[in-house]
Amino acid sequence: MIFISKLINYVKIFWQSFKLFWQAAKVTSSILLILIPIQALIPSILIKISQVMMDGLLHHNFSNELIVFWGIAFFVSVATIPINTSLQGILTDKLIAFVNIKLMKKSADIKGLNLFENADFYDNLQLVSSEASWRPVNLIVFGISMVREIITILSMMILLSNYSIFIAFILLLSIIPQSIISYHIQQNSFETMVTRSPDARKIQYYSETLLTQKDAKEVRLFGLFNFFIDSYHNVYQKMHSKMKKVRLTQMWNSLIFLLISAFLSVFSLVWIIQKIRNNEISAGSFLVFVSTLTATTASVYALIENSSLLYDTLLYMKKYFNFMNIKEQNDYSGTLAFPNDFKSIDYNHLSFSYPGQNELALNDVSFNVKSGERIAIVGENGSGKSTLVKLLMRFYDPVKGNIKINNKDINKMNIDDYRKNLSAVFQDYSKFYLPIKDSVGLGNIRKLNDKQSIINAMQDGNFYETFKNKNLSLNTMLGKQFDNGIDLSGGQWQKLAISRAFMADSKIIILDEPTASLDPRSEFNIYQSFIKMTENKTVFFITHRMSAVKLADEVLVLKSGKIVGFDSHDKLMKNNKYYADLYNLQAKSFE
Ligand SMILES: Nc1ncnc2c1ncn2[C@@H]1O[C@H](COP(=O)(O)OP(=O)(O)OP(=O)(O)O)[C@@H](O)[C@H]1O
Known about the structure:
By secondary structure, the chain is an alpha/beta fold. The protein has helices spanning 2-24, 26-58, 65-109, 119-131, 135-161, 165-173, 175-194, 198-211, 216-221, 225-277, 283-325, 385-392, 415-420, 436-441, 451-460, 464-469, 490-503, 520-533, 569-575, 577-589, and strands at 344-352, 362-370, 374-379, 400-405, 408-409, 422-425, 508-512, 538-542, 554-559, 562-567.
């Protein structure tokens, strides 16, 4: 029963995958659809013509037309090979692009970050995206050859059934156990090796650590090569012994079934020899029978091998379709527009914990901010500062309470319209490896080609000085991995990210430690332009530099997810001991 339901599932995914071919390339798929049965039937046709020729020769009524038919059939059989290869290549290219574009479009539908916190989802996403560039090749190669083998086998069965339906049936039956075992083994090896089993994930991480630029410095400085190579080797040995077992079982099973199949073939041969001896069939038929038997056996094994390799790909496709069908739990279906007369933001008894965590990252947070105010958010590491603004950006939904703008729950607003009104520089800002023009301009996609706005934003974000001194142009490519690409220092990248945020016409600006990698002069300049730029804008800036808080109208002090102070800097210094201690501690370190 389990096998039947698995088989049905397999056929369903196969069908779904075939629909992808169609969607990706209608013309190429149609030509292939015509070509597959032709290719599949040619072997039987050639055998049949040979049989008629043989009988003609034996009975002295050979017709020369048969040679022409045979020649045509033979030409078709060889000519379809290069045509098929080229078409499969074209289809593969189109399918790879199609699958990847669909994946990217699906990613655009995921508005929040909740799903990314789910290890299973994240693993699936990694698998689906990293293999999307080659899995479709297998899907096409094995999928097409499987269909072709099935048609060939069926046509051979028809030829064989001319001699004995019984023998045709037995041969067909012998496929089933071998197939079940092959699929089972294929699934095992997929789970062990290909999917993100914890061990597979570990070895991938070890090799990446040594091979990517990200960790190159520490790996070299601390001499970590042997450590990671040994770790890789140890985990690999463990996995390898599991895989070796799987592969040896596969080999023994195949040998047993090949033995059964050889036995069946010998049995059929003895049977037909007997028939010839009894003069029940002609000697010509013997040759045809043997060719059919050999061709059928070859096709049966090709079918088993290709379909079990296809099975592996279908397990991947299942993950792909699962990803394509995934739905976010958070509701992003709100339709309200962001108010034109934006007046206030209210956090109302808001509590939040990250998915899978019991601890509250924010605990009953309530405060009110008026449009145009500059709010500094301060607190120790892990006190909830970034979380507070992530909820404002609607990356997560609160567990309790809500955030309102002009008294309307932000969850009721259209997410894309809502986010157009927000701009941010994150602690872990993105480094877009694109021409400078785009890397800055992406902050406001509508102004991507507005060179003056881009230059203004670079001036405000303090990147312009670097731009001039290094003789860069708007078309200079960022990222050493590209031809003529350049890299920037940490602080320069940060200034670029700030410039990007300054591109936006947003009403609310969020800066999560915007000056962490900046030198004091750049920090001063950034804050100067910041004051200029953010007139009439509502600004939240998270900072550990207490000197910056003086720029804020009010300071929000967080401690372990709770608000412990919300007032102007001067008043807090007078009335809030926790804040005053925090401030004085830093002030002292500069004395
Ligand atoms: N993605 C996450 N999943 C689970 N817990 C998280 C996640 N991000 C943050 N946390 C936890 O939530 C709490 C608040 O984190 P948050 O990043 O908001 O602190 P923060 O005040 O911005 O800290 P820092 O000053 O170090 O940047 C911390 O206990 C942190 O460990």
